[in-house]
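Instructor's aside before we start: the two examples that follow are unrelated to each other. I chose them only because their records fit on one page, so don't look for a connection. First example below.
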Amino acid sequence: MKKNIFFLFLFTSMLVNSQSFIISGKIVDENKEPLVSATVFIKNANKGTSSDFDGKYQLKIPEGTYKIEVRFIGYKSTSKTVTISNQNVVVNFDLQPEENVLDEVLVAAVRVKANSPVTHSNLSKKEIEKRNLGQDIPILLNYLPSVVTSSDAGAGIGYTYINVRGSNAERVNVTINGIPYNDAESQGTFWVNMGDFASSTQSLQLQRGVGTSTNGTAAFGASLNILTDAISEKPFAEISNSFGSFNTKKHTVKFSTGKINEHIEIAGRLSKIYSDGYIDRAFTDLKSYFLQASYIDENTLIKAITFGGKEKTYQAWAGIDAAQLAANRRQNPYTYENEIDNYQQDHYQLHWNEKLTENWSTNIGLNFTKGQGYFEQYKADKKPSDYANIVVATNNGKTDLIVRRWLDNTFYVANFNATYKKEGLEIISGFSYSNYSNKHFGEVIWAKQFAATATIRDKYYESNSKKNDFSMFSKATFKVGEHISFYADVQYRNVTFKTNGLTSDRNPIAINENFGFFNPKFGATYQLNENQHLYFSFAVANKEPNRNDFENGITTPENLNDYELGWRLKDESITLNTNVYYMLYKNQLVLTGAIDGVGAPVRATSGKSYRLGLEIDADIKVSNQFNIRPNIAFSDNKNAAFVSSINGNLTALGNTTISFSPAIIAGNALVYSPTENLQFSFLSKYVGKQFMSNLNSAVSANDVLKSYFTSDINFTYVLKPKSVFSEVVFTGLINNIFNKEYVDRGYYYTYDDTWSVPNKTTTLDGAGYYPQATRNFLVGVTLKF
């Protein structure tokens, strides 16, 4: 009997000692507003989670003494030590803002919070660093929902592109610290001018759809806002080197003085990236820099930033045709040894934030950008009259020559916004003004014979462009009761665009257009419980044509009504985002599939069209070491009653699929972290079939781009030596591990297209392709002092 009692007591004791108890609490800011997705970590138990939509967290843990650490971007990390003994424990955290972190200051006007009724994805510096081995920012965003990326040279370095929800880069608004980055004339984004900019990026947010009111060109597919490096409390230095396939090399040096006398910090970066490219001779040579000086006191934040780069790339924008793709997918049709792009762009920004009272703050942003450069081309058998008779015919009325086509531009921006914030209410109002001017001109630098009257630097074409862009906005987020919050946003935007002179084809161009746009947006979030909420939003966007559109006779602006309905779930083991969108366009400028003589896409007005889609992404915590992060997007993208010229005749094609808009885009990441310092990721991407024109094979099947599936492996290991270095970070990336031969982008042309493909003879129809690299690798090491 005594033995039975003893074993019963022993069993009961073991059961009690093995019990898990709950640590829970709420994480709020200084205004008692909940902080969503704050990181909660108990190091000595190797357990962690993140706060839900109410700022609440919960962890199960055995009895013992633990140190709970909480982190959130823009706020001071804090920790508390607690002892659990026979009962659950509630531990709340009030986080105080970091004095020297400007996240909310610089991007508050264009960025949204986690529970906002705007469909979005965030990427932190820590996540960016894991794959930052020299590839451009679009490639680093490849695994976000509804995103498709590509590059001319095939290896993700140089001229790179991003497509979101079927919309190309000309329809993705990009801001850096709230300053517009899109080229004002083409409305595109040239990432090649910002080599290694990911190394100076603190965080970014990709808003899909219209999103919030933004500075600069309207968002017709997405908006991407980038925040540059935050101020460092402590001094540091970093040396980062990586190398890989195709003779790819990246060298980066970074430093910070830390806070000097508690008020001043100076930091900077120098980078050089080189790659031969996957495509023959499609080399990329990038040099870039980033420098910032910051001042801070109790109520003032001032940040002066300059960054820029010089790029030299050998051209690969012509792609290759089907026969060339079958014969040698790496070949480049250009043969002239100096068929290069040579361009430099420098940016200067000044940001001043002032906290006036506990409720009021203001922010001023100023920018000056200077860009200048050319691309050089060899031209065979050209008429002298096409080059202002600077040259003389040497063979059958034609001659060979080499030209340089120049851009020389300046861009000024002034942003201002004021924020009023109190519990349950935030109002941000402001304006943005920009002035852009650009000189386009071309020179003949060599010919078999120049005209007797020709002089050096004679121009065979020249035009000047000016664009003024003014917008003002006011947006508010306010709570009504415990479960409902509303979002309202109104913007007025006025655009003036003027240009005069001759195009590169020596056609007269004279544009003097003014557009006024009213863009209202509103939405609501309904909180079902502490783990789930629903949201709905409606947004209007209007967009002016770009310079190429004007050249092609298009003067009508586009209109978009964007409806978004979403559900978000967040608990200890899963974060799930689902949304349905319906984007209804009027006069949408869709890509015809053709490209012009410098590789830029040609567009045409499609009348009425729409995009209807479902997006799902998740982060599933299988264990403390293993996460699954899948995403998938299904969409139906249609031109309504589409009419096109085929063999010289206008043909009604009915409802056709919009070009370059795959019906399925899926991605997945399997992330395994056996220890805190080691992580492996297996990344996969599937992109469905795309039509490269809006004809949907009405002429032939040459306009179809096949679906593809690729996989990458990424690993990082952090070594923490006891001396000399604070950290040594090893990073590796194997792209396309299954060695797939795939094409992710191309172009399509017909007899009716009034353009020509470089180095090709146009037939009834045909296509060009941009093959991407087969299996390749990048490895790097970063030494942190």
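Example two begins here.
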Amino acid sequence: MLQVTESQVRLGLSAADKTEAIRTAGRAMVDAGLIEPGYIDSMLGREAITSTYLGNGIAIPHGLPQARDLVRQTGVVVVQFPGGVDWGGEPARLVVGIAARSDEHIAVLQRLTGVLGNPAEAARLGTTTDPGAVMAVLNGGETVPAPDAAAPLAGPSIAVTAPSPHGLHARPATALVEVAKRFRSEIAVRHGGGTGNAKSLVSLLRLGVSGGQPLTISAAGDDADAALAAIRAAFAAGLDESTVSGTPPPPPPARAAPPADLDYDGQVIAGISASPGVATGTAWKFQREELTVDETAPDPAVQHRRLDHALAGAAADLRNLHEEFWKKAGAAKAAIFKAHLELLDDPEMAADAHARIDAGKGAGWAWRAVYEERANTLAQLTDALLAGRAADLRDVGRRVLRLLADATESVAALPDHPVILLAEDLEPSDTAKLDPAMVLGLCTAGGGATSHTAIIARSLDIPAVVAAGPSLLDLENGREVIINGDDGVLVAGPSGRDRARAATARVAVAQRREAEHLERYKPAITTDGRRVEVAANLSDPEAAVKAVEAGAEGIGLMRTEFLFLQRDFPPSEEEQLEAYRIMVRAMNGLPIILRTLDIGGDKNVPYLRLPAEENPFLGVRGIRLCFEREDLFRTQLRAMLRASAEGPVRIMYPMIAAPAELARAKAITEEERRTVGVAPVEIGIMVEVPSAVMMADRLAKEVSFFSIGTNDLTQYVLAMDRLHPVLAPQADGLHPAVLRMIERTVAGAKAAGVWVGACGGIAGDPAGAVLLAGLGLTELSVAIPSVPSVKARLRGISMAEAERTARDALVCDDAAEVRALVRDRFPGGAA
């Protein structure tokens, strides 16, 4: 077993900066016969890529993999800088240089990791004058002890009392970490015989501090006194415990007041409302994930980057959840996500995982080992509240692990009884697997309000919540849950009071929908006499009859690409013609807009054999694919044109970005029209890319109408993939930037005398319907079940007030402010 000798331990040195410290450690490694001198440059090269600082004053500089041939033998040296060397904002006192040709050094690193959990021990080794003390720990001659309760800690200290009634549980510990991280000093919290790092939430929770227990807090560094003063003030204020201070934490800036009371007794999993309604039932996971991680990996530099990216992605996801839940339930109820963020930002966990990567482990394996080890420690605490934080840590850990998995195995399965379906997300092809009679509601870990899950749920008229986070998939099948699509939450293990509230909400929804259903054929005329046409979006020709029965005044969007999915070859001209004829006859004279093939992006058709694309949303999709596969385009156009002989058919091209594309599409259409021998039809385009908006005045001169695809327009304007696991929740079509693009589109169309409609998700959104009408759109095309409610919503408002609200929305800062504005002006409907 590798042993550290006295000649490999150098104490009491100094260095002006990190570079000099690394060179000093490197020269010691050369003197010990571990490396060639050139390896020192590789150590500096690695440091330029990623910091090797672990925490608690310990750094482990080492070289890049490609310089391994400069390593003579595996070993380590320890160089001590008692005065500290700035290592990217943290003082390093113990610098362990590593030379690795084999894995013999792993045991030393594992013992070093043990020091990281004990700030006092790290401080002792960083200032000791006895090389034997360092050797004893790293060679395994002694265990890393908890400091003796009577032993003084380095630096000034203060005595405080843990807040009542629950001590240092997640919320007050999070508050303490936030204060400690504002200071450069190392800060330790001593409780009984244990010491925790005040900047590490897990370290504090592992102390198991109950309410009213005495604590000693010490600090070492140039701002130690200021740090202790701030910490003393934080304890005096109760560390965000409302029972002590009575003062809630300050809210995030520029956020609207919570619109709903989400006071549930069961476990609340917060997401984003995708489809309204309330349902109670048993949970069932559509996809059961098995995450596989490789224990070893050949390139530590790549693994370091993978871990950093996963941590950053999970943190962004949690920030989104915190802000969204704060808007709905207030700061106190959103505090759990704040605590989760601190768990994720724990310097000791990250340092431990990076150390394991340096020992040759894969990023996913290292991260799982770290969070499971700490979760097991928390679970063994005697305080039930603190032990319960183990579940939170596993939740956070799994959130990161999903981004690090080397393989994910999913098993799709549906039971034979009605359930509330839980899923990572749903693709268009998944719709074929759903029986509406067996799905009471949908809740997904990913996605956003414009995701496929939201579209599917609104089409099926079932409650849905999206972007609920990975912890959703930890719920076991068969557990009772309540889904509240209005509030955007799933409640697991509801109480009797929760069930009663859900039942009351269902009755209210049923009564409102019954009233809307009775008046579904009335036109949507505002209180001051302005009419907005409400049409339906279709993906299935057979649904045309349902659209008429729901009160739709036409088909505003027929997604013809669904005729091309779930099959091994494209539909023939006759097959398409029959599908279009079914709709024309069912609509009995009402207009139908047939959108030409919109494949690509998030829709893939294997038999088309499209090449893989780095970013399919910016690749060959929509009209671009029609030009690439002109044979399919011409076949489809002929079927559409032949169907127009039986009723008012309009043809619409997707993803038009420039006048030249429109001209080419129209020319091909005209050639096929002459071949078929039918009368000209109205031609329109989808406005869904910024270039189309900027060229709207030119494009409007060549078409009969515009239909704004708000889902795609939103993702392109905000540069946010609407299927992205982190960004999707922010891709809100009511963002002022998107509304300004819509305003500009309407202005360009108006100058040419062209009408404008919308067929994206926000057209069926209560707030979206009001704002789109106020911006000048004269047609809204929505999911069939939403037709009666949107018509009722428009009949209950004044167009003058909608126009005033739309103007005010254009100068808001974000979508949350826009929704709050609509909610205040039109309190009768959810925003």
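Confidence is low (pLDDT under 50) at residues 143-152, 242-261.
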